[in-house]
Amino acid sequence: MKGRNTHEQSIAALAAAAHELKSPLTLVHHIAQTLASTDLALSEAERAQYLHRLQFTSERMLRLVQQLAVSYRLDRDNQLAFQFQVEPLNVMEVCEEVAHELWTYAKECSQELRVKTHNCPHLVVANREILHDIVVNLVDNAIRHNQAGGKVDIAAVCRSDQVRLTVDDQGAGMAQRDIRRLRSTLGTQPQPFTGHAGTSGLGLYIVGQFAAAMGGSVGLGRPRSGTRFFVDLLRSRQLSLL
Fold first, then answer.
1. Can you name the residues that pair with 24 across neighbouring β-strands?
2. pLDDT tens column, 19-71
3. Please, are residues 166 and 156 in contact by the beta-carbon 8 Å criterion?
4. Rounded to the nearest 5°, which phi and psi values hold at 219?
5. What letter would DSSP give residue 190?
């Protein structure tokens, strides 16, 4: 039964990956044709903008493929999670890095990224690269489902033996029935959002797998407006020297 479930998850992830990569590949093809066109006069500023979008989109696709490779290995080898090198990390430092990386992307989507800090150390036991991918996927998901002119809030709160990382958007949100459905499968299989074209839920599936590999979990909350996804990670008891 477990083998069949793993096979079904792999098939679902493969279908979701094909769906997820279709739009950026189409965009890359369009940009490449535009830059190669001799009939279209582009200013230096326009050419630079096209090159930036080409670079960002290709990097995003490469990151997704790399994450899928790790995700597949996690599916096949339950012991792989123990091979990740973990260390005490400050969640908010990683969040600040991701916010800086995705600032231009958010601006192009007419959105604002805000990193909120609270009075606690925010130290977790995690692998830096895996934690970075978790934050990138959560923020990217929020930007894509947010409304134009909206804000994406990134925060972390200490909770006894855990630190909860939250990412909120100000989008349309989801109906209660969709929330119940998504909660039942979140992190275990790709689950597209009802009413959101072009989404596969692949990023959240990867977040769930990566969080579980570090002893954490992914969840869905209900902010005052929009949608909130969160990840609970094991809190480090090592004192910060900063």
1. none
2. 667 677 777 777 787 777 767 777 888 878 778 777 777 777 778 777 777 77
3. yes
4. -150, 175
5. -
Q: How many residues belong to the chain? A: 242
3-class secondary-structure state, position 41: coil
Amino acid identity, residue 50?
Y
**Average pLDDT of the residues in 93-116:** 93
Which segments within 76-188 are labelled E, that is strand? 87-90, 112-116, 123-126, 151-159, 162-168
Tokens of 135: 């934050």
Strand arrangement of the beta sheet that strand 217-221 belongs to = 112-116, 151-159, 162-168, 228-234, 217-221
Is 199 in contact with 192 (CB distance < 8 Å)?
yes
- Of 200, 210, 207, 185, which is closest to residue 18 (Cα–Cα)? 200
How many other CB atoms are there within 10 angstroms of residue 114's CB atom? 11
Are the C-beta atoms of 169 and 226 separated by less than 8 Å? yes
Amino acid at the residue 149: G
Beta bridge partners of 228: 168, 221
